[in-house]
Design brief:
By secondary structure, the chain is mostly helical. It has one domain. Helix content is about 80%, strand content about 0%. The chain contains 12 helices and no strands. Helix 3 runs antiparallel to helix 4, helix 4 packs antiparallel against helix 7 and helix 4 runs antiparallel to helix 9. The longest helix is centred in the first third of the chain and has 39 residues. The radius of gyration is 20 Å and the shape is globular.
């Protein structure tokens, strides 16, 4: 009897492991397909890098001279650089969902949905590919930061932490974008909503000023904003003198929790985008 129970448990574990491998394989296949699109037409990535470049070259330089925003011993330009990287991740990922609408209009999405692939794997694969865009933005901003003399941390652990944070942040906001795309279903509405969402998310965070400067109601909003925790992790990992206000564990937990929730919602909404 014991041997039979052991065999059943091993069989159940084997099925779970096989399902996990299949899920990961499906997600990687989708991610690879999306990255190939990016490699064939990288124009969008470099176009998206214009705005963060202007933030550093214009806004950052001016406010560093005026010292209007208290950042302690850290220069304001150093303080805002992780925020600008987070902004670049946000702005690149938040419009990722429009690709779903294009794929629906071209009939590609219908073909993907009739495959036996897990819906969650389709969503997670697209989220992972958004991370590739985020990594390109990271390279561009790091190069610009070096030219501007920003005091960056280049150790193995800090740099690896930045890359992980960017991948996770890109996944969160691209999945959020997919949820919006599944709901609105048209390019015009999606673009309008995307424009409405990006600026509040950015300004209601600690990207360009400390949370301590905010009025009480805005502090509450900032603390439920996932971008705040992405910036917090990047600031501690990326620049000399940077510290995490919430702790790395909280930053990662919030991002992972948001990603899990959004992937679950998007997987349920994904098939309905073709309706």
């Amino acid at each position: 009897m014991r041997s039979e129970g052991l065999v059943e448990r091993l069989g159940a574990l084997g099925k779970i492991a096989a399902g996990a491998v299949e899920f990961a394989s499906d997600a990687l296949a989708i991610a690879e397909m999306e990255v190939r699109k990016l490699a064939r037409d990288p124009t969008e990535v470099f176009t998206r890098s214009v705005q963060p470049t202007l933030w550093l070259l214009v806004f950052g330089q001016v406010f560093t001279r005026t010292r209007a925003i208290p950042t302690g011993e850290m220069r304001y330009l150093d303080f805002m650089t992780p925020g600008v990287l987070a902004q670049s991740v946000l702005f690149t990922a938040i419009f990722f969902g429009i690709a779903i609408i294009w794929e629906r209009d071209l009939g590609i999405l219908q073909k993907m949905l009739v495959t036996p692939a897990y819906r969650g794997a389709l969503v997670l694969g697209k989220a992972a590919s958004a991370g590739a865009r985020g990594l390109v933005q990271t390279i561009i901003i790091y190069a610009l930061a070096v030219l501007l003399g920003i005091r960056l941390r280049f150790g193995l652990i800090p740099t690896s932490g930045v890359l992980v944070a960017v991948l996770l942040g890109s996944a969160v906001f691209s999945t959020f974008s997919l949820v919006v795309a599944c709901i609105v279903k048209t390019r015009e509405r999606f673009m309008g909503i995307g424009q409405v969402l990006t600026m509040p998310l950015f300004f209601a965070s600690n990207a360009i000023y400390p949370i301590e400067m905010m009025p009480g109601w805005l502090k509450v909003v900032a603390r439920v904003n996932p971008l705040t925790y992405l910036v917090d992790a990047l600031r501690a990992l990326m620049v000399e003198g940077g510290r995490s206000a919430f702790g790395y564990g909280v930053d990662v937990a919030v991002q992972l929790g948001a990603l899990l929730l959004l992937v679950t919602v998007a997987a349920k909404l994904y098939p309905h985008v073709v309706a």
